[in-house]
Design brief:
alpha/beta, 7 helices, 6 strands, 34% helix
């Protein structure tokens, strides 16, 4: 793991999942409003620590609730605007947010498929997938990372038993633990 962290440099791109990484998931459904969005403890500090360490920081999130009509698109945008504002105010940043509202799991843009990574690279042509890290809390996040050739960091926030899977390059208990490990190398 130490070797992986030592290779990461300011030319790298950080891909982040949202639910289960930035904020608490809703185990019974979706995060449908800003009022339902709760940052994990330490995330704002983590984003501040990660800010100078990566060229691009990109959020990639499946949002099937929008496609199913359970989450309103306007509410999703408000969640993301407020989330970005809080992260920015804490000294962090997210350069781009990409979401897939498709219901069909075979959609090219739905993780684990790589579509959102290619959308990000259209907006940020300097993104090199081989110099990227995917941080997530689900098997589909890890498969997404592998699909684009990125290193994978698994957070044990919601599924601790998956941490030893072959798709996982390194595991941490939280985004803050990852941020501290990489900033202290």
């Amino acid at each position: 793991m130490k070797d992986l962290l030592n290779h990461i440099n300011p030319n790298y791109t950080l891909f982040l999942d949202r639910d289960g990484v930035i904020n608490h998931e809703n185990p019974d459904g979706y995060i449908n409003s800003w009022q339902a969005f709760v940052f994990y403890e330490g995330v704002l500090q983590a984003m501040q620590l990660l800010n100078p360490l990566f060229k691009h920081i990109v959020l990639v999130t499946n949002q099937r609730g929008v496609g199913r009509g359970i989450t309103q698109l306007a509410d999703l945008h408000q969640i993301h605007q407020n989330m970005q504002a809080a992260i920015s105010q804490a000294g962090g940043r997210i350069d781009g947010i990409y979401f897939c509202a498709d219901v069909d799991s075979s959609s090219y843009n739905r993780k684990p498929n790589p579509g959102m990574a290619y959308q990000a690279r259209q907006h940020f042509p300097a993104i090199n997938f081989a110099q990227s890290v995917m941080v997530g809390n689900s098997p589909s996040d890890m498969a997404f990372g592998r699909a684009i050739g990125a290193s994978t960091i698994f957070l044990t926030t919601t599924n601790p038993t998956f941490a030893g899977n072959q798709l996982v390059d390194a595991a941490f208990d939280s985004l803050l633990d990852f941020a501290k490990a990489i900033s202290n190398r």
